Amino acid sequence: MSLQKILEDIASCLSTMDTLEEKVEAINILRQGISQLSPFREQPTDCVLWVKQETVLANAYNPNHVSSPEMKLLHTSIREDGYTMPIVTYDMQNGRREIVDGFHRNRVGREYTDIQTRIHGYLPVTTLNKPLDQRIAATIRHNRARGTHGIRPMSDIVVNLSKQGWTDERICAQLGMDLDEVLRLKQITGLKEAFMNHEFSRS
Known about the structure:
By secondary structure, the protein is α/β, with parallel strands linked by helices. It is built from nine helices and five strands; from the N terminus they run ααββαββααβαααα. β3 and β4 (97-101) form a beta hairpin. α7 (151-163) crosses α9.
């Protein structure tokens, strides 16, 4: 069977579905199936799914902040160019997803009527299924690669990772910091336990 015939059969099958929800679910299943056969299946962007906005939840740890002018620019970008980057999510296995990266792209899809209408109340997502500490690190890496963080929330992140057993060296390597920056962020908290894994001989 030729690929063209397969595409025609898929189009015919989709045309028999009455609702948008049915079509989106079917397309997601097809994308997941194709991704399983892909040589790039380990890359999150190999499988972009469309999920209902209400199933996508914010995480409780992201220290990134986008000002009003930047939010307006993000809206303009999505309005003019569409969603060129999906929202990175953790599949909670209960029909819900927690955002790892893309909280503000998520906000644009929800808060701007023109965008919400265009994407039919859905959001484009990829999946990054890693333990919580690794998801926190992934969020920080995404943010630091392109923007700034609030100081206090960032210090809370460093303390949280330290409490989970991350050494200063691991924090530096995984979050793109140097030891002095880690120490300063720990000092902000004023908590003795923040220094449980600090290498004083290296500071």
